[in-house]
Structure formats: structure tokens, C-alpha cells
Amino acid sequence: xxxxxxxxxxxxxxxxxxxxxxxxxxxxxxxxxxxxxxxxxxxxxxxxxxxxxxxxxxxxxxxxxxxxxxxxxxxxxxxxxxxxxxxxxxxxxxxxxxxxxxxxxxxxxxxxxxxxxxxxxxxxxxxxxxxxxxxxxxxxxxxxxxxxxxxxxxxxxxxxxxxxxxxxxxxxxxxxxxxxxxxxxxxxxxxxxxxxxxxxxxxxxxxxxxxxxxxxxxxxxxxxxxxxxxxxxxxxxxxxxxxxxxxxxxxxxxxxxxxxxxxxxxxxxxxxxxxxxxxxxxxxxxxxxxxxxxxxxxxxxxxxxxxxxxxxxxxxxxxxxxxxxxxxxxxxxxxxxxxxxxxxxxxxxxxxxxxxxxxxxxxxxxxxxxxxxxxxxxxxxxxxxxxxxxxxxxxxxxxxxxxxxxxxxxxxxxxxxxxxxxxxxxxxxxxxxxxxxxxxxxxxxxxx
Length: 448
Fold this sequence. Notes:
Blueprint: E1 3-8, H1 12-22, E2 27-32, H2 35-44, E3 49-53, H3 61-71, E4 76-81, H4 86-94, E5 99-102, H5 107-138, H6 148-161, E6 167-170, H7 177-186, E7 195-199, H8 205-213, H9 230-233, E8 238-242, H10 249-261, E9 263-265, E10 272-274, E11 278-283, H11 287-292, H12 298-304, E12 307-310, H13 321-335, H14 345-353, H15 359-373, H16 385-391, H17 405-419, H18 424-431, H19 435-445
Helix pairs in contact: 2-3, 5-7, 6-7, 10-12, 13-15, 14-16, 17-18, 18-19
């Protein structure tokens, strides 16, 4: 990664000598004979590091520092000073300079300082890129879906992400609870801090306590060293507790204390530790029903359910299936370096009619399997037997009883378009609509 370093000093021998001493690959070094020239360079270039003398004509080092801090806050400033003006260098650090060096400059010390600054900048840029990659993957605007149900989910995520509130995610297996939890974290003020997850249903009670709260050396057999828990690891960030419904009552008491007081002890320890963690709990079971059955603490339930987001099963948002199919075809065509196939109209109808008990996860698996096993267009013959048999019924559209008239009409129009291979005239005749009426409805419902 190429960085730019600017040396500002009115003594030609000094600035050229420093340039010679600092020359290396991936470092573009620029020179300025006074503070005014240095400021013009900063304004017209992305300068990562500025090394400036304090005493210069036109604009002195302190004034240059102040202007650069205001106009290019990302630039790291190092000041150079003589023995008699160390107090001025210290004052410069109070006003935003990173460090100072005393003339005559120790070249080894200068190189170490510049190397440290550039390494820190590279690490910060890599972290920012990682955060951006996570946002690209988990930002809620990148979650696939345009149905009314998903629009409502996006609205809730957008609102709750900015808050400190704990969130309870409810949805069948495969509906994308972990992706939504990631989206909440990545769009929250905590995005720069850890997102930590643990599957509560995959661990027995003793291991779950150790996993979440950590343990001290000798706390139990094989505890050969102290181990921090997930609450410590997630401090300042977000902790996802998946399958929270599978936890035992004795564990729920300890979890309640952390949520109420923000403190806990490691297993086998006596020191009380503090933590600032936002908790997102996920479950495929109704916790309110478990509360009524006495299998889940009511006080913990309300601590977790400050905001509840219920994710719809795929069968209740069938209009999103073509979007999801297209997305997975894009993903797997790149992964397997195969041409992206088109999907025959009957095959898409079958995919939309299938009830998808495994939800989006099952659909993704089917698309991957189908792409691996077939070349060219995906047809009815490409699909697994159960989808051809159950989803391939001709002229069948399943609409949830909870759907609004608007949702039902949109689903019916889209299914008719698929059946007629996108022919709008045939679709209008089949639905008993005029062409202009159909076109208006297509635009109104956002159907392509």
C-alpha cells in the first residue's frame, strides 16, 4: 500500500537529507521549503505523514499544525525542534502532533518512528476495510428481500440498531436470524467493537457457563489456565445468544444478573468483573409459551425482549424467492466458475410454490446442488423430486391467510407472469385486466 510523507523544512540540506534517509518502497516523499508550500501540498494531496520544522518562514510549524489538523485530520504530524525549543514541541503535541524529534535528528530513531506510524495506519486501514466488508455482507440494505414483510423487518432493524436495547429474534430455523443480528450490530454505534456469538443449545450447562463467563485456572478438571469468557470478549460490542430457549433455569439466573447489573464472576473465581455488552437473543421457539409452561424465567424473558423482531418464514414471502434465487445463482456461479444459468418459468413457479420447511437455508442448498449437478438452463428436471412433486402443481398459488388484499394481488400477478413466461398480454387476458391496468399494477407493486 503506497503512503505519502511530506517533509517541511526551510533548510534544503535538512529536508533532502531526511528524504534520502527515509526512502523506501511504497513511500512517496514530497518536500516543502516553508509552511505555506506544505499547506498547499496537503490541500492538493492525500498526505499520510507530515514531518515539519517548528521555525519556518511564511507559516511556522505551530500554525501549519493547526491548519492541517482542521483541514486534513487524518494526517499524522511529527514536529522537529532544536534543544532550546523543546517546550514548543511539547505544546505542539498538546495541540495534536503525534510526536517530536530534537535536532540533530537521529536517523535510526526517525526511521523507527515513521515505520511505527505507517504500520499503525496500515492496520487502521485494514480494519476499516474489514468493517466495510462486514457491512457489505451484513448491512441490512444488502439482505435480500422486497416483500412487505421484509420491508417491515428492515424498518425495525434500522430503528433498533441505533439504540442500546437488547433484542429478541424469533423465527423458524433457516430464516436468517444470525444475519439480522449481524446487521443490527454492523449498523449500530458498536460496529467497531466485537460481534461475538455462542450457540446455547450446543453446550451442556457447565461448559456454557465457562464459555460465557470464562473460568479460572483449576476451576475444574482440564482447566489448566485462566480463560476469558464471551462476555469479556464482547465488551463494548454485541453478544448473540443463539437458541436461548435451550438454557437451563440455573443458568438463566446468572444470565439475568449480567443483564441487570452488567457484572459476573468467572467459574471458580471470586473477582467481580464488569461488562458493557448488548445482547441479542435468538430462538425458534416462542419464549412466552415457555414462560407459561414454567420452562423459562419471566423476568429474563422481559430483559431479553426489550424489542422483539419476528422473522417471516420463506413461505410467507414467496415474492422474494426469485430475488433470492438470482442472488444465489450469482454467488455460486462465481464460486464454481460456471456461467450463470437462467431459470425456466415452470421451474421458478415450482420454487415459489414449494413450502420450504427449511426456509432460506434450504433454498440456498437446493440452488447450490442444482448448479453443481446441471449445466445450462435450470428446468423442472433439474430440481429435486420433492420440489417437482409438491411445488410443480400447475396454476397453484399459495397465499397465507394473514396476507392483505394488496399482498395477495401482488402474489397472483407475479405467479401469472411466471406462468406466461413474462408475456404481459397473455397475463392481462388470464387475469381479466386491461393492459394499462396491468402495467399500472406492475409499476405500483414494483414487479419487473
